Amino acid sequence: MDFIREQLKGYGMSDLMIVYLSNIIMVLFIAAVSIIANLIAKKIVLNAISRIVSRNRLKWGAIVLEKNVLHKLSHLVPAVIIYFSAWSFPAYQILIERLAAVYMIVVAITVLNALLNAFDEIYRSFEVSKIRPIKGYIQVMKIVLFIIGGILSVAGLIGQNPLIILSGLGALSAVLMLVFKDSILGLVAGIQLSSNDMVRVGDWIEMPNYNADGDVIDITLNTVKVMNFDKTITMIPSYALISDSFRNWRSMQTSGGRRIKRSIRIDTSSIGFCTEEMIGEFKKIHYLSDYLESRLQEIEAYNAEHNVNRESKVNGRQLTNVGVFREYIRQYLRHHPGIHQGMTLMVRQLAPEETGLPLEIYAFSSDTAWAVYETVQADIFDHIFAVAPMFGLRVFQNPTGHDISRIREGEASL
């Protein structure tokens, strides 16, 4: 500044003009130096670092560059230059230093924010991120970072100790707790969800209270984002997963089998004892030949041992068409390629109702994919409905208009 003023005096200018011109020239000089330094930091230093990172093929380094961490950090260079040049303007030195310091605080906050984003992105590249998501904790760190940055900025502008502002915030703790209520609840819920391994990214969850039925795609501080199977997005508050009930299908997906639990209802009026002709036809079925041989021998031995009167089928033990049909279904499932043979498999009778006798199939498909599971289940019941009449059984169905019209046609023919 003294050098510039000496040069201006040589042109015979007045003192007031010298002061104004020297200040303008100094401002332009500092601005030019700041711009040049910023360009050097971005064009030379950052490009060199980018080449080194791309040459080493470090994944985390590429993520740091992608999040513009170093690019944001380069904004500190002109701020530092301006801060240490404030002495050139004694009348405005304190104001310039305070503004430059606040700017540096803001830049530091943006750099740390970008660094946290990069760390979250790097963490997501590991499989453990699906089991232990940390996005909620990172959001808490960001909130704390912004609060501290705001306090330091205000303290820097008014020239007060940040502890004084902190002591004033202590009196507003109730208001702060009200403002950050959801964040506090979300933090507590996130800790419980993570420590108890209740939900992970990629889990299929079902929560009827929020119309959520799909895959978890993101877990944040305040919300859990679920993509439903109709491709809509449902946002569930994190604390709702702690306070309300929900169903997680993860264990089903990892077990390798998906449960089939469905019934076919048999008309009870079609149930009866097997005749010799029926048994002869049943023996032609591959799945039943061995069963019938052993079963008939067992029944014959029992009836002979107890001197059963064969004139009535009520006496002793006899085969029934529904019992043979039940065994056929079981054997059919045992040989079905889409059924998991290492899990529970049974065909059982449930309590008869006014809609017939339910025969329930309880088994597990060997593929948990939804489309494959539905295909396997449909294939099984297609076959069961088709073979039921071969056992002399009728599947129960309430009368339809077609049934009524057939009855009327029969009455008309008479």
TrEMBL record:
Domain spans labelled Mechanosensitive ion channel MscS: 182-250
SUPFAM superfamilies: Sm-like ribonucleoproteins (SSF50182)
Protein location: Membrane
The entry's keywords: Membrane, Transmembrane, Transmembrane helix
Gene3D superfamilies given in the database record: 2.30.30.60
A Pfam cross-reference name: MS_channel_2nd
TM region positions: 20-41, 101-119, 140-158, 164-191
Broad class of the protein's primary localization: membrane
Presence of keyword ATP-binding: no
PANTHER family xref list: MINICONDUCTANCE MECHANOSENSITIVE CHANNEL YBDG (PTHR30414:SF0)
Protein name, as recorded: Mechanosensitive ion channel
UniProt source species: Saccharibacillus alkalitolerans
